[in-house]
Amino acid sequence: MPSISIKNFQSKNDLVVYETDVESSADLLVYKTSSKLKALENEAFWYIENFENSSDRSICFSNSKAAADLSIHYVKDDASARWQGEHPLKGKLKS
Where is the 7(1) septoil knot domain (predicted)? Predict the structure, then answer.
């Protein structure tokens, strides 16, 4: 995924994300990378920007899975990062 910024409030074009502690209930297993270039390789690799105007996409976290566009679980190694099943956003997070 291109670089992202995390916002405290939702705007029209933000991706709303729910973070779960239960790996099996996540749509996407996300690996946070320190390389912006590596984040371009895979939608499940996220590079977090500090400033919204430096990022390609912004996300806003939700406390409700039902209100979210996507549920994620952070993984510790890049080999575990992947989609879990089909999802309407699969293949669309790169842009």
Answer: 4-84
**Residue 52 within a domain:** yes
Alpha-carbon distance of 58 to 60, in angstroms, equals 7
Instruction: Measure the CA–CA gap between 15 and 59, rounded to whole angstroms.
Output: 5
In the chain, the number of structural domains is 1
Task: Give the position of tokens 């919204």.
Answer: 52
The pTM of the full predicted model, rounded to 2 decimals, is: 0.88
30 neighbors 72 (Cβ within 8 angstroms):
yes
Which structural domain range is residue 57 located in?
4-77
Give the three-class secondary structure for 30.
Answer: strand
Among 39, 31, 7, 6, which residue's Cα sits nearest to residue 83?
31
